[in-house]
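## retry 2 of 3
previous attempt timed out at serialization; input unchanged, resubmitting
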Amino acid sequence: MSTAETDDNSQGNALSLAVIKLLKGVIYQDDDPGLWQQIMNLQPCIRDYVAVMGLTFQIDESEGYAWLATQENDQDTTPLPRLMNRRQLSFPVSLLIALLRRKLAEADTTGGELRLILDRDEVVNLMRTFLPESSNEVRLVDQIDSHLNKVAELGFIRRLRDQKDKIEVRRIIKAFVDAQWLNEFDQRLQDYQHHFAPGSDPSQNSEDNG
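## retry succeeded, writing output
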């Protein structure tokens, strides 16, 4: 086998690995620097490769993460089936995502650490203001833990391995909750509070992800 063929096979394997990893979720520079460098080098190839599947390759080099999103369908073309389905979110999960995004924005404004790590108790206190009052503290914490697990499934947070009560807010959340959304945050919080007012039904929500 010639050197050129070996190089082509090597690049093909690297491209396949990068696309498979991206299909599984967001890639972070600090999680796997070697894979990140391959993705940086293969950006045009990745973009062309995933376009065939109706996906777009997104990367934020300054923040250090990359992900795939579904292409917007052109009105003149037959829409492709969605490879990455939209997810219906409950109001508490949407609220939690919004509150975490605001905490990240506040941390960035103060110029602190790049990583935002919160105690679970801090997250509980953030949510407590907007959730219906409960006399059962254990039940409230369990509910918020369940919401945190959902947010973790979406890739917006992760629990630290050696400290399960510590939660890292992943920076990919900035790609889904942008600055314009944050500018309307106060109004959204009023909506949430109204939603959870006595007599309201918090089981439905029209927001989704992806």
